[in-house]
């Protein structure tokens, strides 16, 4: 006769801030609601449910019937709700004050909305550092769930993980459950009989054990092929039926019931960790490949099982090193969080208090974890997710300006270490734009925020090598014939577009703006596209800088003495914003010490993100206003003094006006990345390169003025029209 065991089934349902509305809707129809439909027929089987705040907000607005239904499950004790940080941030990626604030905010919201008490929480992506224990307890949480690998990393073996442990930080006690990796791999793929046998085997050896499954709810309907398997083919119903038939020894329960009636196994302190695959993805590309090869070789050892728990890969925070673009988002978020903390401490009660509350909500939305890293899912590689993060951070920044009393037209300039590299960057801002310059790396313009539409035009992403690119190359022969969505669970390769192996190309410098190039005279566009032709050292060289300010104008001057082939030359650029033209950045370039009569080929690279490609309403236009093709166009224009980019959907018009006619090279920057539905080509930004070929004048001096103008009048007009329509509907 088997011993008694408890089984806790925990589902984590999440959609990130900024995901497409259709993705939310499909997940609701294919997973979230069908799961409740089946659960309804098994009232004796409770589950533990975590719904992220970003998803819950969407459900409340679009499917309030889901909220009502879950509330009924909660009322009768069939669902225990878990809390967590509201907008699903990685706890390691946000300040302590925001960790506690997000957890408290969501706990209060859930308790009010569902008329329940929230005692436990879900740790986003199970990224853990021991100091979190104290923060979680301070936020009012009693227990949480991590992976069994966290516990094995602390030296415990598998036989010691059938329950929960106590841990603490500064005397604050937290209960931590060990979720089973074996269960995560069995559910929902194995036959229910195999799952019952797995539980029975543990019951035979460890009477009164606690087994806990904790994983993505999207496995039940959203993941490729899972909808048919789980619902049409009846896997979930058969699984629940098997659980019902084995109730005599297999007690399906909740975390709260277990904590109330089962003693902890013991005490433990857990090392920094996340789930196993995440630690691999956090490694640099070449180290990730080496790590996987090392594992593959050692798996053949007879003693590998006993060694495995002592072999660890990477650390989540190093995603911010692996991907500089993730660090840029992180650093911007830290700026906003600090500013919010400062303003909160000084703002007087009144209307400004509401602005601060709105800014805090936007900051929390801007901390949603998904675009800050990349693994088996798109994450960082998905522009709409990065754009959503920046949208919230820019909105929070603008709200804090208003809360601080900013009104009307204004400009400001300051220098500080904004990107956390121990060097000072320069921030130029107005009531309409925010621009960040990095003198220590080419004097690039690396962020350009448009306040009116909450958009960072430089939320770009470089093309870089990823370990899975080798798989794409290895399957190049089938790319044209095996196109379709989905990743074969048996390790096969699926392509969302053909010939992706031919699109693999990597960038040698950051795809930002004000990137200064000296090129070979007569260089062809195609040769430059292939990464050849650079003969200067200005692309990423260190520039010196100074700033100036007055009431209506701010400017930063950057200069560098560098090399043009064998020659010493100087490049200076002055970037300015005025209060009366706060939507225009003026850049004056001056080249000096050019050898008289020498053929010069100078270019300034701009990149523009946030504007999608592949649609007729997103296009380039010339100085005569006529379209030059959609934004995925690679072209070389005749000399002109203007080139513009339009995104009618965003209501955005960006133009470059140049004092000396320039030829323009344009190209799309497209990455090849993996997602849950297959390998795909993703448009990241538009590269625009005005370039000039001339003979150096006798005095060795040459200059040009570039005006970068941002027009959001179409977006503003649309917003006014929508507000007017809304008021009309309300009045009727």
Structure description:
This protein has 732 residues and is of the alpha+beta class. Helices cover 32% and strands 28% of the residues. The protein is built from 21 helices and 28 strands. Strands 16, 17, 18, 19, 20, 21, 22, 23, 24, 25, 26, 27 and 28 form a 13-stranded antiparallel β-sheet that branches. Strands 1, 2, 3, 8 and 9 form a five-stranded parallel β-sheet that branches. About 2% of the residues have low confidence.
Supply database-style keywords:
about 725 residues; alpha+beta; Beta-galactosidase, Chain A, domain 5; 13-stranded antiparallel sheet; five-stranded parallel sheet; 28 strands
Topology diagram in text:
Layout: E1 5-13, H1 21-39, E2 47-51, H2 53-62, H3 64-75, E3 79-81, H4 96-114, E4 120-122, H5 132-138, E5 143-147, H6 148-153, E6 164-169, E7 172-179, H7 181-186, H8 192-205, E8 209-216, H9 226-232, H10 235-245, E9 250-253, H11 255-261, E10 266-267, H12 276-281, H13 285-298, H14 304-307, H15 319-322, H16 324-346, H17 351-365, H18 383-403, E11 411-416, E12 425-430, E13 433-438, E14 444-450, E15 455-456, H19 469-474, E16 515-518, H20 525-529, E17 544-549, E18 553-564, E19 567-578, E20 584-592, E21 599-608, E22 618-622, E23 627-630, E24 635-636, E25 640-647, E26 652-675, E27 678-695, E28 702-711, H21 713-731
Helix pairs in contact: 2-3, 8-10, 16-17, 16-18, 17-18
């Amino acid at each position: 006769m088997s011993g008694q065991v408890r089984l806790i089934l925990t589902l984590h349902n999440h959609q990130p801030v900024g995901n497409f509305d259709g993705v939310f809707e499909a997940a609701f129809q294919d997973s979230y609601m069908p799961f409740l439909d089946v659960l309804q027929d098994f009232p004796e089987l409770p589950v533990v449910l975590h719904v992220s705040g970003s998803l819950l907000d969407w459900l409340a607005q679009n499917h309030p019937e889901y909220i009502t239904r879950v509330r009924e499950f909660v009322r009768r004790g069939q669902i225990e709700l878990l809390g967590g940080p509201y907008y699903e941030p990685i706890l390691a990626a946000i300040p302590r004050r925001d960790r506690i604030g997000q957890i408290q905010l969501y706990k209060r919201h859930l308790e009010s909305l569902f008329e329940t008490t929230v005692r436990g929480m879900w740790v986003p992506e199970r990224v853990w550092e021991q100091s979190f224990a104290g923060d979680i307890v301070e936020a009012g949480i009693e227990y949480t769930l991590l992976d069994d690998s966290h516990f094995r990393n602390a030296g415990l073996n598998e036989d010691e993980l059938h329950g929960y442990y106590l841990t603490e930080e500064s005397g604050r006690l937290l209960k931590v459950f060990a979720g089973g990796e074996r269960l995560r791999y069995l559910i929902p793929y194995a036959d229910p009989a195999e799952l019952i046998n797995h539980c029975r085997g543990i019951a035979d050896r460890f009477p009164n054990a606690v087994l806990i499954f904790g994983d993505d709810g999207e496995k039940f309907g959203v993941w490729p092929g899972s909808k048919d398997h789980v619902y049409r083919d009846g896997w979930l119903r058969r699984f629940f039926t098997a659980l019902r038939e084995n109730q005599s020894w297999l007690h399906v329960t909740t975390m709260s019931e277990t904590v109330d009636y089962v003693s902890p196994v013991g005490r433990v302190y857990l090392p920094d960790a996340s789930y196993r695959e995440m630690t691999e993805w956090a490694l640099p590309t070449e180290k990730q490949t080496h790590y996987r090869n090392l594992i593959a070789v050692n798996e053949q050892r007879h003693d590998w099982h006993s060694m495995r728990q002592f072999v660890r890969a990477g650390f989540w925070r190093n995603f911010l090193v692996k991907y500089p673009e993730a660090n840029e988002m992180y650093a911007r978020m830290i700026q906003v969080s600090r500013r919010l903390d400062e303003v909160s401490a000084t703002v007087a009660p009144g209307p400004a208090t509401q602005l601060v509350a709105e800014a805090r909500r936007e900051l929390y939305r801007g901390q949603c974890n998904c675009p800050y890293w990349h693994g088996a899912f798109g994450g960082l590689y998905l522009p709409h997710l990065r754009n959503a993060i920046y949208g919230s951070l820019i909105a929070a920044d603008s709200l804090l300006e208003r809360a601080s009393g900013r009104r009307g037209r204004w400009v400001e300039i300051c220098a500080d270490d904004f990107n956390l590299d121990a060097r000072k960057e320069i921030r130029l801002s107005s009531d309409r734009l925010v621009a960040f310059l990095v003198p220590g790396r080419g004097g690039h313009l690396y962020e350009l925020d448009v306040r009116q539409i909450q958009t960072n035009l430089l939320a770009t992403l470089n093309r870089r090598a990823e370990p899975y690119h080798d798989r794409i190359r290895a399957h190049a022969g089938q790319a044209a014939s095996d196109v379709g969505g989905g990743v074969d669970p048996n390790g096969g390769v699926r392509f969302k577009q053909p010939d992706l192996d031919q699109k693999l190309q990597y960038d040698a410098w950051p795809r930002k703006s004000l990137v200064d190039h000296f090129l070979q005279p007569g260089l062809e566009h195609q040769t430059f596209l292939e990464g050849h032709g650079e003969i200067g050292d200005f692309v990423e060289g260190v520039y010196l800088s100074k700033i100036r300010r007055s009431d209506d104008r701010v400017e930063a001057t950057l200069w560098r003495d560098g090399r043009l082939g064998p020659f010493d030359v100087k490049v200076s650029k002055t970037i300015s914003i005025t209060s009366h033209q706060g939507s225009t950045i003026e850049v004056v370039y001056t080249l000096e010490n050019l050898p008289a009569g020498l053929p010069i080929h100078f270019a300034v690279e701009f990149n523009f993100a946030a504007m999608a490609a592949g649609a007729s309403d997103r296009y380039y236009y010339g100085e005569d206003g006529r379209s030059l093709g959609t934004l995925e166009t690679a072209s070389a224009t005749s000399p002109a003094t203007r080139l513009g980019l339009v995104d009618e959907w965003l209501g955005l018009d960006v133009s470059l006006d140049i004092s000396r006619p320039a030829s323009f090279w344009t190209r799309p920057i497209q990455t090849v990345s993996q997602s849950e539905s297959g390998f795909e080509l993703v448009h990241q930004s538009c590269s625009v390169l005005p370039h000039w070929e001339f003979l150096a004048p006798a005095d060795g001096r040459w200059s040009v003025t570039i005006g970068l103008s941002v027009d959001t009048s179409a977006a503003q007009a649309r917003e006014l029209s929508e507000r007017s329509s809304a008021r009309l509907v309300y009045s009727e």
